[in-house]
């Protein structure tokens, strides 16, 4: 028993330790993972940074007038007494294109994701099950697009540019992860992925639907989203029973198991 | 076999009893760095996948060797411990919001198959598999313990201002320590039950070790 402890692979630790320091550089780029209870969790968009103050002002005051454009950010900067020409130095760009309008679009995504949780924590608790909470959070998040809906096509246009798309997908994943978690998802296996993937898909489809929706209070959009999420629910159940079937009927198929083993 | 079915069907809940009790007045320590978070994320993912695998390997062995009067309680005991390990990492993964391994379906089929096929090859073969797996896992857990105790004590306690490990990190360390000791208990059990009489022992031992190491490598990343 002791030989196990004495004979530990020291080199392995040496391999791992550099990861701890090397990765720190490219930090804020990763999708959110590991949420601590005992350590302070940084806010989704830190309101104390100058960058976010400018973006917040642009978002609330100028987007409704001039849309998701560089102009909106420039005006907000000027209003806060910052020279719009110095934004390149102030901003901590998340995409390689250094696209100010994209930062504004991302600010909307982060702000709305934070609001979705902060505004609805209490209301969500009273809902009977995970599916209802899922629908509720998606609807609330969609409605957070309302103040900027007339210009939202501009933001979407920025997000899908090739240089911006990976950052957009990361934020979309974070949204799907938040929605699933707050709704009560506690999947421990592949269902974790299929659920987030499906929630993200349903959300994007609903956003596109919303752009053309003229119904009062976007009732049609909410209904559309609810229908998509019903499909998600069905999908998850089909997957899980398939897996059980595979495990118990497939054991006679030794070849299949062998091929899985080879795959390691 | 019916016990195998029952266990599989009833393993859903993941509870607070496996976690460090939540702090009553919010966070006690300053924020983890992104690198520290990435490391914890990885630890929980690979350990969850590993304990899932262990759970299913013993399930497979139990299905194959459960009729064996002497072996039944021996395997059952190790399996029960793995069920606890597995449930603990499930609770950590879901509550601390790490993603599970994408390859989970492959781990399930592979591990159950390894346990079942290994068990069908006979007692010695199965025990040699256990010997190999637990050897790799023991070293793996020791490495994690070293990193956890060396790299997570630099965070400030919000009340006292001292730099300490938070209860969350200490809890994870304690769990891994307990599991490591139980895994080396499994190793001893395997040796006591003729693991080294398997033929060809070196082939089974090295082969299963390689499979385990490859799985660890993949589960950390994917
Ligand atoms: Fe274990
Ligand atoms: Fe074990």
TrEMBL record, chain A:
Pathway info: Cofactor biosynthesis; ubiquinone biosynthesis
Ranges where the COQ9 C-terminal domain occurs: 165-236
UniProt xrefs under InterPro entries: COQ9_C, Ubiq_biosynth_COQ9
GO terms under biological process: ubiquinone biosynthetic process
Function noted in UniProt: Membrane-associated protein that warps the membrane surface to access and bind aromatic isoprenes with high specificity, including ubiquinone (CoQ) isoprene intermediates and presents them directly to Coq7, therefore facilitating the Coq7-mediated hydroxylase step. Participates in the biosynthesis of coenzyme Q, also named ubiquinone, an essential lipid-soluble electron transporter for aerobic cellular respiration.
Family recorded in the similarity comment: Belongs to the COQ9 family.
Keywords, in A-Z order: Lipid-binding, Mitochondrion, Transit peptide, Ubiquinone biosynthesis
Taxonomy of the source species: Eukaryota, Fungi, Dikarya, Ascomycota, Saccharomycotina
Organism: Brettanomyces naardenensis
Compartments where found: Mitochondrion
Gene3D superfamilies: Tetracycline Repressor, domain 2
GO MF terms, alphabetically ordered: lipid binding
Domain of life from the UniProt record: Eukaryota
Coarse class of the protein's main subcellular location: mitochondrion
GO cellular component: mitochondrial inner membrane
Protein's recorded name: Ubiquinone biosynthesis protein
From TrEMBL, chain B:
Record pathway: Cofactor biosynthesis; ubiquinone biosynthesis
Family matches, as InterPro entries: Ferritin-like_SF (IPR009078), Ubq_synth_Coq7 (IPR011566)
Keyword Iron appears in the UniProt entry: yes
Cofactor info, note text: Binds 2 iron ions per subunit.
Binding sites annotated in the UniProt record for Fe cation 2: 82, 134, 183, 186
Compartments in which it is found: Mitochondrion inner membrane
Keywords, in A-Z order: Iron, Membrane, Metal-binding, Mitochondrion, Mitochondrion inner membrane, Monooxygenase, Oxidoreductase, Ubiquinone biosynthesis
Cofactor(s) needed by this chain: Fe cation
Membrane topology classification: Peripheral membrane protein
Molecular function terms, GO-annotated: 3-demethoxyubiquinol 3-hydroxylase activity; metal ion binding; oxidoreductase activity, acting on paired donors, with incorporation or reduction of molecular oxygen, NAD(P)H as one donor, and incorporation of one atom of oxygen
Biological processes, Gene Ontology terms: ubiquinone biosynthetic process
Record's catalysed reaction(s): a 5-methoxy-2-methyl-3-(all-trans-polyprenyl)benzene-1,4-diol + AH2 + O2 = a 3-demethylubiquinol + A + H2O
Enzyme class: oxidoreductase
The keyword Glycoprotein is assigned to this record: no
Subunit structure and binding partners: Component of a multi-subunit COQ enzyme complex, composed of at least COQ3, COQ4, COQ5, COQ6, COQ7 and COQ9.
Family to which this protein belongs: Belongs to the COQ7 family.
PANTHER family xref list: 5-DEMETHOXYUBIQUINONE HYDROXYLASE, MITOCHONDRIAL, COENZYME Q10 BIOSYNTHESIS PROTEIN 7
Name assigned to this protein: 5-demethoxyubiquinone hydroxylase, mitochondrial
The encoding gene: COQ7
């Amino acid at each position: 028993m002791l030989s196990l402890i004495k004979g530990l692979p020291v080199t392995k630790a040496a391999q791992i330790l550099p990861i701890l320091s090397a990765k720190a550089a490219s930090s804020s780029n990763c999708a959110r993972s590991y949420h601590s209870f005992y350590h302070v969790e940084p806010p989704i968009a830190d309101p104390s940074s100058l960058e976010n103050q400018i973006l917040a002002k642009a978002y609330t005051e100028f987007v409704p007038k001039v849309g998701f454009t560089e102009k909106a950010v420039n005006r907000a900067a000027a209003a806060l007494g910052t020279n719009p020409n110095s934004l390149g130095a102030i901003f901590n760009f998340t995409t390689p294109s250094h696209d100010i309008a994209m930062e504004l679009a991302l600010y909307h995504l982060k702000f709305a994701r934070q609001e979705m949780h902060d505004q609805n924590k209490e209301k969500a608790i009273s809902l009977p099950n995970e599916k209802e909470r899922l629908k509720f959070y998606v609807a609330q998040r969609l409605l957070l697009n309302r103040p900027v809906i007339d210009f939202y096509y501009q933001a979407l246009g920025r997000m899908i540019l090739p240089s911006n798309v990976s950052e957009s997908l990361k934020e979309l994943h974070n949204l799907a992860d938040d929605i699933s978690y707050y709704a009560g998802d506690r999947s421990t296996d592949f269902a974790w992925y299929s659920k987030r993937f499906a929630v993200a898909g349903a959300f994007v489809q609903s956003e596109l639907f919303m752009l053309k929706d003229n119904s009062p209070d976007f009732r049609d959009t909410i209904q559309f989203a609810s229908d998509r999420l019903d499909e998600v629910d069905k999908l998850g159940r089909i997957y899980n029973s398939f897996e059980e079937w595979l495990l118990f009927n497939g054991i006679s198929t030794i070849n299949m198991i062998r091929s899985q083993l080879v795959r390691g | 076999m019916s016990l195998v079915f029952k266990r599989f069907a009833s393993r859903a809940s993941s509870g607070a009893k496996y976690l460090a009790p939540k702090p009553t007045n919010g966070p006690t320590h300053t924020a983890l760095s992104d690198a520290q978070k990435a490391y914890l994320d990885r630890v929980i993912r690979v350990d969850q996948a590993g304990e899932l695998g262990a759970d299913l390997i013993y399930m497979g062995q139990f299905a194959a060797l459960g009729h064996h009067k002497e072996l039944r309680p021996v395997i059952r005991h190790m399996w029960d411990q793995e069920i606890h390990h597995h449930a603990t990492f499930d609770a950590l993964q879901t509550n601390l919001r790490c993603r599970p391994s994408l390859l989970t379906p492959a781990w399930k089929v592979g591990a159950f198959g390894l346990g079942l096929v290994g068990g069908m090859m006979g007692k010695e073969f199965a025990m040699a598999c256990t010997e190999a797996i637990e050897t790799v896992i023991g070293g793996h857990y020791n490495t994690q313990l070293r990193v956890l105790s060396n790299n997570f004590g630099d965070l400030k306690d919000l009340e006292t201002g001292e730099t300490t490990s938070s209860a969350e990190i200490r809890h994870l360390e304690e769990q891994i320590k307990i599991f490591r000791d139980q895994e080396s208990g499994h190793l001893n059990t395997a040796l006591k039950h003729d693991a080294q009489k398997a033929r060809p022992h070196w082939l089974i031992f090295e082969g299963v070790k390689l499979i385990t190491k490859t799985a660890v490598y993949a589960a950390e990343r994917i």
